[in-house]
Fold this sequence. Notes:
- The protein is mainly α and 230 residues long.
- It has one domain.
- The chain has helices spanning 2-10, 13-73, 80-87, 105-120, 128-145, 175-190, 203-219, and strands at residues 76-77, 147-148, 156-159, 163-164, 225-227.
- The chain has a three-stranded antiparallel beta sheet with strand order 4-3-5. A two-stranded antiparallel sheet has the order 1-2.
- Helix 2 (13-73) runs antiparallel to helix 6.
Amino acid sequence: xxxxxxxxxxxxxxxxxxxxxxxxxxxxxxxxxxxxxxxxxxxxxxxxxxxxxxxxxxxxxxxxxxxxxxxxxxxxxxxxxxxxxxxxxxxxxxxxxxxxxxxxxxxxxxxxxxxxxxxxxxxxxxxxxxxxxxxxxxxxxxxxxxxxxxxxxxxxxxxxxxxxxxxxxxxxxxxxxxxxxxxxxxxxxxxxxxxxxxxxxxxxxxxxxxxxxxxxxxxxxxxxxxxxxx
Length: 230
């Protein structure tokens, strides 16, 4: 009985009520914080889910767009995810803002096409080095855009006798026209201004190109070759 008597003497009813109130307030505060934390997490999870769905839908639409380009232009796209990531480098990261507008890659491809068109439209004769550069630049651009125009088992130039170029005597007059259409179509999907860049081909360019072809076939000019891909 002694402890009970001491407790009653030292602690009043008001103290007990105050203590209980304080505990209740602390519990209420914790409950409110917990509810807010859960609500915030749910909101964050919802935003992340929406962001992921936007990315997936945009990627699927992009693949469908590429299917349309393939059907229209006779090209074949490969490593499509890499192509998407180069055009929309931030969309795959959920922590970054989503954008339907492409990066500067499409504009850079258009500028590269313009340089190729300038050479093809040159009204004066030039040497084999310019043809080598023209083919090499075309190879790089199609590599960046992850597509090929040439069909399997088709003869083409192999630069340094080992690197397939995608350029042949049968398609060289068409490749810039197709590239122009591909870039224009990609620009439409990505809300970037890139008008058609094909402007034809001069007789002078055709003449030097054909001379280059003969030099490769007859003499293996500069260790290049013209053959099928084994």
